[in-house]
Amino acid sequence: MPQAPTTTPKDTAPQTPLIDVMGGAARRELPVLDHGFLALIDAMPRLVPQGLTADSAIVQAARVSYGQGTKQVSEDRGLIRYLLRHRHTTPFEMIEFKFHVAMPIFVARQWIRHRTANVNEYSGRYSIMPDRFYTPTLDSVRKQSASNRQGGEATFPLSDPDQARTPEQFLEFLRDVEALHPRYMKLTEQGVSRELARIGLPQNIYTEWYWKCDLHNLLRFLSLRIDPHAQLEIRAYAAAMLALIEPIVPMTVEAWRDYELESVRLTRLEIEAIRAHTKGQAPDLVCENKREQAEWGAKRAALGLGPAEA
Ligand SMILES: Cc1cc2nc3c(=O)[nH]c(=O)nc-3n(C[C@H](O)[C@H](O)[C@H](O)COP(=O)(O)OP(=O)(O)OC[C@H]3O[C@@H](n4cnc5c(N)ncnc54)[C@H](O)[C@@H]3O)c2cc1C
What we know:
Layout: E1 18-20, E2 28-32, E3 36-44, E4 47-49, H1 55-66, H2 73-85, E5 96-104, H3 105-111, E6 118-121, E7 142-144, E8 152-155, H4 161-178, H5 180-189, H6 194-197, E9 206-214, H7 215-226, H8 232-245, H9 250-261, H10 268-278, H11 290-302
Antiparallel strand pairs: 1-4, 2-3, 3-5, 5-9, 6-9, 7-8
Helix pairs in contact: 1-2, 2-9, 7-8
């Protein structure tokens, strides 16, 4: 019988000592909302040569396509910035982060829409849902936004007794729905299956999951969920995620802030308005759509071309 060829794996010893990007910690956790948390559990690469950050894994992958070139840390930064600016995204997929998260179910519903992550969630069919509910503080109950049907905006002025009553009533309402938990427990004790008993529980009950995502898609999650258009509660988790990953991939986060988070994307009509401004004309958008006008107002103010309101 012909033998299958065998090969011996080649191990190469690192030239410089390796360090743990999580500093030897098994878990790095930040509290979020009243009972939630976001904990970094693992990262890939976990070990990097001393003096480098996990950003080096992006550079290492990119150099497969661009050749070795020079290997100075300053040039790594330049390469990462180039890749991000030109949306050469696959090298960022070489880095992964795994989190353990506890969040209210209404936050989890928004979060799960980010399909490019791997998720394993607490099972309310298998286990009892713990008595843990999200309740905003009285002074953080938001009013319905007048301009954005999907958002909340200013809080109720608590100094005005008439207005203060409404957030109090809202918290009473939450206390009433939380009082359903003992009934849920009793019904499960009486034999109702956990998978059915849980369907009467409210959306502010906490769930937990493990969430693993590569850096490219994680940055997309952050761009969408740190944005002021996202709901405040999920923004709190996005901010915690950013705080945990930033020390591990500082060059990437710096480039992402510069080219994405704190950048302004312009439409053709907006560029024409800026051209008009450089010719001494008012930077007005030639467009009748009110929403687009309002968006241009915000960008115009950010660019220092005039007030948000025309
Ligand atoms: C402020 C805000 C308001 C929102 N409001 C609503 C709402 O009212 N209703 C609602 O249903 N959703 C809403 N969403 C969810 C939103 O539409 C997206 O589903 C969510 O943000 C996930 O984005 P994503 O698809 O880019 O992420 P991911 O699922 O992580 O995908 C990342 C990228 O991978 C690619 N991709 C992934 N899957 C596919 C696929 N099957 N086919 C092709 N390309 C794919 C796409 O390029 C995508 O951008 C809202 C999101 C935000 C931030």
